[in-house]
């Protein structure tokens, strides 16, 4: 029994696909890729959404010139979220881009019947 459990655990480790990458055909898509690279590998996503978020950064005033004077800088970040549906035999993939760079990938569960297989 112990041997079967160890073999099952080893199989799951080897078979598990990392959350930071997935395959489009034989091409690996991974975090850090650019949008154009993903488009070349996978084609157009099945769904996409985009928006701009503003993130705050604090710029500290120098102690000699303006002690205690801080500036808040609003930086725009272009967010794009794509979903690929590879059909009912594979997980759908959710991709989150910031300023054209793939930041993270999530598996969404199995695809639908009408996805490309």
Question: How do the helices and strands follow one another from N- to C-terminus?
Answer: HEEHEEEE
Q: What is the count of β-strands?
A: 6
How many domains make up the coordinates? Answer: 1
Average pLDDT value? 82
Number of helical segments? 2
Strand content: over 45%
Tell me the distance between the termini: 37 Å
> Runs with pLDDT <50, length 5+?
7-18
* Strands ordered across the widest β-sheet: 3-4-5-6
Summarize the structure.
This protein is of the alpha+beta class.
Structure, described:
With 117 residues, this protein is α+β, with helices and mostly antiparallel strands. The chain has one domain (21-110). It has helices spanning 2-15, 35-42, and strands spanning 21-24, 27-30, 47-60, 70-84, 91-98, 101-110. The protein has a 4-stranded antiparallel beta sheet with strand order 3-4-5-6, with no helix packed on it. The protein has a two-stranded antiparallel sheet with strand order 1-2.
Please give a handful of descriptors for the protein shown:
19% helix; alpha+beta; 117 residues; two-stranded antiparallel sheet
Task: Draw up the topology in text.
Layout: H1 2-15, E1 21-24, E2 27-30, H2 35-42, E3 47-60, E4 70-84, E5 91-98, E6 101-110
